[in-house]
Amino acid sequence: MDLQQAHPGATRDVHRRDLLKAGLVAGVTLSTWPLYSPSVLWGADAGQPKRGGILRVRGYDPVHFDHHQTINFKTNTTLSFAYSTLVRYKVGPDVEPGTFITEPHLAESWEQPDDTTYIFHLRKGIKWHNKPPLNGRELVADDVKFTFDRFLREPGNADRHMLASVDRIEVVDRYIVKFVLKEPYVWLVNVLANPRSMWIIAPEVVQQFGDLKKPESVIGTGPFLLDHYEPNVKTVFKRNPDYFLKDQPYVDGVEWLVLEDESTGLAMYRTGQIDAGPWHWWVVRQADLEALQKSHPHLVYKDVVDNVTSAVYMRTDQAPFNDVRVRRAISMAIDRQGVIDAVYLKGQPTPAIAPGLTAWSLPIDQLGEGAKYYQYSPKEAKRLLAEAGYAKGFKTQLNFTVGYGRDMVDAVQLLEQYLKEVGIEVELKPQEYGAYMATTFAGKYEGMAVGPISIAWEPDSVLYGMYEPGNLRNSSHVNDPKLLAMLQEQRRTKDIEARRRLIFDIQRYIAEQQYYVFTISITYTCTWQPYVKNYAPNPSFDYGGRVAALWLDR
Amino acid sequence: MRQYVLKRLLLVVPTLLLISIIVFTLNHMLPGDVVVLMFEEKAYAKDLDTLRAKLGLDRPLYIQYFSWIGQVTGGDLGESLWTKRPVLEEITRRLPVSLKLGAMAITVALCIALPIGVLSAIRQDTLKDYAARSAAIVGLSVPPFWKATLVIVLPSIWFGWAPPLQFTPFSENPWQHLSQFILPAIILGIAPGASIMRLTRALMLEVLRQDYIRTAWSKGMREPRVVLKHAFKNAIIPVITIVGIQVAEIASGTVIMETIFGLPGMGRFLVDAIFQRDYPVVQGVILLTSLITVVINLLVDLTYAQLDPRIRYQ
Fold first, then answer.
1. Quick one: pLDDT at residue A34?
2. d(CA A468, CA A483)
3. 3-state SS, one letter per residue, for A124-173
4. CA nearest A240: which of A220, A257, A217, A255?
5. b/e map B13-47, b = 16+ CB within 10 Å
6. A54 lies within 8 A of chain B by CB
7. B208-219 tens-digit pLDDT
8. A-B interface: how many C-beta pairs under 8 angstroms?
9. Which of A98, A172, A475, B218 is at a distance of 20 to 30 A from A421, taking alpha carbons?
10. DSSP strands (E only) in chain B
11. Contact criterion met (CB < 8 Å) for B42 and A161
12. Are A1 and B275 inside 8 Å of each other by CB?
């Protein structure tokens, strides 16, 4: 195949040195080096920044543009180009994937005078996009107060619980805003960095448009202005010349393309019509990876572990799942590596915190007593079931949705087989996504269910909701006072290392109890064209931040 | 004829009314609640109730129906529950894409089917006939989505080339706009073309055995005149009926083509709306699609009268 024809943009300016480096990185990453490569490999020798060019990438069609009325990732990833947060998770090639380090953003600094007070100092001179009604005016503390007052009051905001500990927000002066909490909550800064729902907005825009659903209402302080939106086709952004981070963004614009079909996206990537991988997180699916690497070895490939776990959850408030031996048996009946090998090709068994959240996830072999329940042992599973009084097994149902894609369907069928081998006969109940959300995910199901657990960039938002009695995210109907006490304690523990030890203890306890049978986290292979420089993937919705830092060298 | 047309047009109203009741009822019977979907499982009861009231979904169903149908009679199909954009505006943006795709697909189908069907009939049991019939079987058997995937994937692997897969509006580049419909229209038109081809062949064979055709041969008429002027015109009437039915099938097939080829048409819009339980959008699109189907059926019936002078509508 003629490489020039395949990648006319890429081959003209790809130097031999870059090709060798790309090949080295791809080969090393995929062979024996650990996934969390040292920073020297990430964006090595990106060279001097270059201005110009339009980045064309796979994007999403937002359901609308109001992040206080939807938590949908399609909206939030799109908004990441135009908006900013008070603080953010660091971006850039020196950030290891799976690490989410908070850094100043709209706020240049913050302080915590006591356990229930946070004071943020805004950078001076940050301008809103030069569009009416804001016309490039300066960002002030009143905007931040307005944003979070709306966040807490808007009836359509399903993420309101994230700031449940906030009592009120006060404006101290033009550039200082204070958060007063009802109780100590050490994760506040991490939550404010969340690239979902935390985008700062201006009151005049809401007053003019009524809400923020229309594309014309997307007026932020982010690196790009929303130029135009074509439903089901693309969103086009252009560079914000007044962006507050010096020199950024380097590209002139971004075409955020709606690509619904995997084959179409891959064909576009192969032929250079898009600049990064055709699937979520700009990855290429594992099933297509080998062929692509063979035909396009010069592309950049990087493995990233997901920060989403999958789990089997069950009615732990009802027999037989209220018996811990039954739950442990289910865990030991599942060959997690078998599921990876058959369906996802790359991944690893996961504890309660996905391995992709590297700073907080405990390796399986360090889960103590609970580690043994991750071993695949149908014999031991049968023994546990017999001990619990189910020597002949039992029948139940397994709910899931086809809306998560065909890989999920394949994995569920494998689970069915594994459970059958130990005597648990499950009746598969596939549901369309809407029906699943209204019933199974809302806790209205019988037996068991399986699906991905929410994405998270810190452990509290993953763990707390899943185990707090009465919480809508408590899909397994868990009521464990000891566990709840541990979760509440870590929310008050300021010292980061002490908090980490608590989180690890929680994971060990969870592994023993198996309220959720955590299965696997997938390993993705992110890929992009070699002329895309200074880019590093990280599984967060802040595409805009990562794009602002990169440049095109072609 | 005028009276007949008027009568048929008047029948459209009760037909659409019945369809509106059916689609409204079925829509709301789907498990899953749009408000719960909006919250993505993270809402408390009070929030759900507040949003439901805001969207008018807390009213009894019959009141919601009459409110909606009242708007429809005034030309207003309501607003999307998710985006708040008028449904009519959304449909207007997308309808031309689907109409173009559908029209081109039907054109492709007829361009394939009619000449090949006629040729296959007049050269019955020859190599050409066998080849045509085999090709028709393949065309019918191979699903359109597979054909579309091959057409996109294989050239990208072998030649480093892919067809235009990002939508270009007509105002931006008319030629590129039209060219992006060519491949999906061909793929979408193959299966209906195969059906129509086989029917055309069968009907032509029947007509060619008629006495008046034998008379035409015996008078020394040349083959094109016999086939096209005498035989084809009589064979075509049932084919037109099938074409009317195929239009509905093509309409359902556009969803897949629109997804694979990145065309922002009505098919994708409708499927997304169903998944999101966007009731006004689903109702509006189905009503409009029903109207188009009714009109097409009327045109099909009127075409009979043009082709066969024996047919008179009272």
1. 34
2. 9
3. CCCECCCCCCCCCCECCHHHHHHHHHHHHHCCCCCCHHHHCCEEEEEEEE
4. A220
5. eeebeebbeebbeebbebebbbbbbbbbbbbeeeb
6. no
7. 898 988 888 888
8. 146
9. A475
10. none
11. yes
12. no
Write out pLDDT tens, residues A220-237: 999 999 999 998 899 999
- Segment A378-388, tens digit of pLDDT: 999 999 999 99
Residues whose CB falls within 8 Å of the CB of residue A205, separated by 6 or more in sequence, listed in order: A133, A134, A212, A217, A219
Q: Of A66, A263, A273, A445, which to mutate for an interface test with B (greatest number of B Cβ within 10 Å)?
A: A263
* The one-letter amino acid at A82: A
The Cβ of residue A425 has, within 10 Å, a number of other Cβ atoms equal to 12
* Chain A contact set for B50 (CB, 8 A): 155
Q: How many helices (H) and strands (E) does chain B have?
A: 13, 0
Angle at B275 between CA B274 and CA B278, to 5 degrees: 55
Helix (H) or strand (E) holding A501: helix A496-513
SS3 B16: helix
Tokens of B257: 């083509």
Instruction: Please state the φ and ψ torsions of residue A323, each to the nearest 5 degrees.
Output: -95, 120
Nearest CA among A228, A230, A226, A257 for reference residue A240: A226
With an 8 Å Cβ cutoff, is A230 touching chain B?
yes
- Say if residue B28's pLDDT is above 90: no
Instruction: Give the C-alpha separation, A268 to B258, whole Å.
Output: 16
pLDDT band at B314 (very low <50, low <70, confident <90, very high): low
Question: What type of residue sits at position A247?
Answer: D
Amino acid at A34: P
Helix (H, G, I), strand (E, B) or coil at A428: strand
Q: Would you call B83 and A213 a contact, using CB atoms and an 8 Å cutoff?
A: yes
B154: nearest CA partner in chain A: A267
Does a cis peptide bond (omega within 30 degrees of 0) precede residue A530? no
- pTM of the prediction? 0.85
Chain B interface includes A454 (CB < 8 A): no
8 Å CB contact of B84 and A261: no
Residue reference for tokens 């002030």: A140
Closest partner CB to B162 (pick from A156, A233, A273) = A273
Whether residue A211 and residue B158 make contact (CB cut-off 8 A), yes or no, is no
Contact between A452 and A309 (Cβ < 8 Å): yes
Point out the residue among A63, A69, A438 whose CB comes nearest to the CB of B33. A438
The token pair that represents A253 in the structure block: 């614009």
Structure tokens at A71: 């938590």
3-state class of A228 per DSSP?
A: strand
Q: To the nearest whole number, what is the mean pLDDT of chain B?
A: 85
Each residue of A138-189: pLDDT tens digit? 999 999 999 999 999 987 787 888 899 999 999 999 999 999 999 999 999 9
Is the CB of residue A5 less than 8 Å away from at least one CB of chain B?
yes
Beta strands A448-452 and A394-401 are parallel
Picking from B291, B171, B303, the residue whose alpha carbon sits closest to that of residue B240 is: B303
Give, for A254, the enclosing helix (H) or strand (E).
strand A253-258
Cα gap A99→A360, rounded to integer Å = 9
Could you tell me the CA-to-CA distances from B115 to A53, B88, B198, B250 in Å, in that order?
A: 50, 40, 11, 21
Helix (H, G, I), strand (E, B) or coil at A227: strand
Q: What gap in Å lies between CA B135 and CA B154, rounded to an integer?
A: 21
Residue owning tokens 């080998």:
A290
Would you state the pLDDT for residue B313? Answer: 57
Strand partners of residue A254: A55, A237
Nearest to B31 among A291, A439, A441 (CB): A439
Least CA distance to A403: which residue of chain B?
Answer: B275
A8–chain B nearest CA distance, Å: 10
* Residues A318, A320: Cα–Cα separation, whole Å: 6
Best mutation site among B166, B255, B270 for testing chain A: the one with the most A CBs within 10 Å? B166
